[in-house]
Amino acid sequence: MSGVVIRAYADADRGAVNAVALAAFAQYAGDYDDWPTFSAGIGRMADLAADGDLLVAEREGAVVGAVVHVGPGRPRSAIYPDDWSVIRMLVVDPAARGAGIGRALVAATLERAARAEAPAVGLHTSPIMATALRLYEGIGFRREHDLPPIRGVPYARYVLPAAGIGTALARLAHSHAA
């Protein structure tokens, strides 16, 4: 992952973050009902900076990935307790995949969750997002329960207790080194 920097979002990143989010989700266009409406929301990923820590991965001056950490007490979906940290919208530019960028972004969110002393980290994802799901399960997230489908796509809530954050970070570091 040489040359990639994980940093806080800046307003100047808005267009690039939204473009990466759309590119990252484009492979699922045929899976969601009403893709135009769904993708319009995806294309406003930068708006999530208002209620969370939007982090970007930058390589050679270009945004190649992003993720949001919603810390305890910040506005979030009702599917998560208020004291949890939540990971939202992990996206990596398809042209930059396979370089450890997603792992680095997840590690940055877990470090923030640990500093916030959240009792757990939650996220929701879908089986259609197989690569992300393998990453999350591989570092210790466990499926808790199904959620209502989102525009026809099945989703479930996953959780990582705070006690598992250190192990998850070690697995992320090890998988990057491999």
Automatic annotation (TrEMBL):
Protein's name according to its UniProt entry: GNAT family N-acetyltransferase
Organism ancestry: Bacteria, Pseudomonadati, Pseudomonadota, Betaproteobacteria, Burkholderiales
Pfam families, A to Z: Acetyltransf_7 (PF13508)
Gene3D superfamilies (alphabetical): 3.40.630.30
SUPFAM superfamilies: Acyl-CoA N-acyltransferases (Nat)
CDD domains for this protein: NAT_SF
PANTHER family recorded: GNAT FAMILY N-ACETYLTRANSFERASE (PTHR13947), LD18367P (PTHR13947:SF37)
Alphabetized InterPro entries for the sequence: Acyl_CoA_acyltransferase, GNAT_dom, NAT_camello-type
Stored PROSITE patterns: GNAT (PS51186)
Domain N-acetyltransferase: 4-160
Tree of life domain: Bacteria
Keywords: Transferase
